[in-house]
């Protein structure tokens, strides 16, 4: 089926009104996007915060009369922001995404393999992954940085927490590398569901918790691939969740944020020099004894 889309830039306080109006005009889907690379840090459960500048994309059947849509919109909103109309190529988008997600190797031991692919190296540690609705395929530099650390680390018989687990990729890697206990923590219940499904697919056990339900049992290794803002606010919690001499691995940090994040962890952890991949970095540290 062919589609067209209306694309306009608006503000967070007007986005919902515009979205409702486009829906009344027959839009099949509405998408909010970030046109200015403005991160949103760990929204409260049940909330959908928007960026100060928000791009709205309204999808319509290609047979839609665009003049009729605009005339109807004028009766429902005070002002229609500048917009453009684009044709959307007719594709099977799920198939397109699946065709472009291929097995990826990290270090010497680890492979991330889409669940619909045959692993290239059956003797490697293969993580069979179906990301579902949760973030995490291994293609992003921050995930790759964490997987490379895991590939080189001795995880056997250790207790590992993956804080901000997304699709469970780091938690499952730790379990397959021999961790005796692995916990995944995320603010998004859908991420916890995806982690459980992927863990079952890989034949490993990962316990999952919302942050408020996470047991306060100090771990040997704490992984957190989230964002710089939340990482800084979580220093006291991560210090509590880490045994003396525990490893901490932090990512989701831009290289310009490395010094600030590292300094915030120095009172509780001995931090090492950042490891860079593209514009992102990984910080490793050890909990003070």
TrEMBL record:
- Source organism, top-level taxon: Bacteria
Its annotated compartments are: Cytoplasm
Question: Which principal EC class is assigned to this enzyme?
Answer: transferase
The answer to whether UniProt assigns keyword Methyltransferase to this entry is yes
Q: What is its EC number?
A: 2.1.1.-
GO BP term (any one): methylation
Q: Which reaction does it catalyse?
A: L-lysyl-[protein] + 3 S-adenosyl-L-methionine = N(6),N(6),N(6)-trimethyl-L-lysyl-[protein] + 3 S-adenosyl-L-homocysteine + 3 H(+)
Tell me the residue numbers annotated for binding S-adenosyl-L-methionine: 143, 164, 186, 225
Name where it mostly resides. Answer: cytoplasm
Q: Which UniProt keywords apply?
A: Cytoplasm, Methyltransferase, Ribonucleoprotein, Ribosomal protein, S-adenosyl-L-methionine, Transferase
Entries under InterPro entries matching the protein: Ribosomal_L11_MeTrfase_PrmA, Ribosomal_PrmA_MeTrfase, SAM-dependent_MTases_sf
Gene Ontology cellular-component terms listed:
cytosol; ribosome
Give the GO molecular function terms: protein-lysine N-methyltransferase activity
- Family from the record: Belongs to the methyltransferase superfamily. PrmA family.
Q: Which PANTHER family match?
A: ELECTRON TRANSFER FLAVOPROTEIN BETA SUBUNIT LYSINE METHYLTRANSFERASE (PTHR43648:SF1)
Primary role: Methylates ribosomal protein L11.
| Protein name, as recorded | Ribosomal protein L11 methyltransferase
Gene source species: Methylophaga aminisulfidivorans
In the UniProt record, the gene name given for this protein reads prmA
């Amino acid at each position: 089926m062919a589609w067209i889309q209306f694309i306009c830039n608006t503000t967070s306080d007007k986005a919902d009104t515009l979205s409702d109006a486009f829906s009344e005009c027959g839009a099949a889907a509405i998408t909010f996007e970030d046109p200015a690379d403005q991160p949103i840090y760990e929204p409260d459960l049940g909330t959908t915060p928007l960026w100060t500048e928000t791009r709205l994309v309204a999808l319509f059947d290609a047979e839609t009369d665009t003049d009729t849509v605009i005339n109807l919109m004028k009766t429902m909103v005070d002002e229609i922001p500048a917009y453009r109309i684009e044709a959307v190529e007719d594709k099977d988008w799920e198939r397109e995404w699946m065709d472009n997600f291929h097995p990826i190797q990290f270090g010497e031991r680890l492979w991330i393999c889409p669940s619909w692919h045959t692993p290239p190296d059956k003797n490697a540690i293969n993580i069979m992954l179906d990301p579902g609705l949760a973030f995490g395929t291994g293609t992003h530099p921050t995930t790759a940085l964490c997987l490379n650390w895991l590939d080189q680390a001795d995880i056997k018989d250790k207790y590992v927490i993956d804080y901000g687990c997304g699709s469970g990729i780091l938690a499952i890697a730790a379990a397959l590398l021999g961790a005796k206990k692995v916990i995944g923590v995320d603010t998004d219940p859908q991420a916890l569901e995806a982690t459980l499904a992927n863990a079952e697919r890989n034949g490993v056990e990962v316990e999952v918790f919302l942050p408020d339900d996470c047991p306060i049992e100090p771990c040997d290794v704490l992984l957190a691939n989230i964002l710089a803002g939340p990482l800084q606010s979580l220093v006291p919690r991560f210090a509590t969740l880490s045994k003396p001499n525990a490893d901490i691995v932090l990512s989701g940090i831009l290289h310009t944020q490395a010094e600030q994040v590292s300094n915030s962890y120095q009172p509780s952890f001995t931090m090492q020099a950042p490891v860079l991949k593209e514009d992102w970095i990984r910080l490793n540290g050890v909990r003070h004894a």
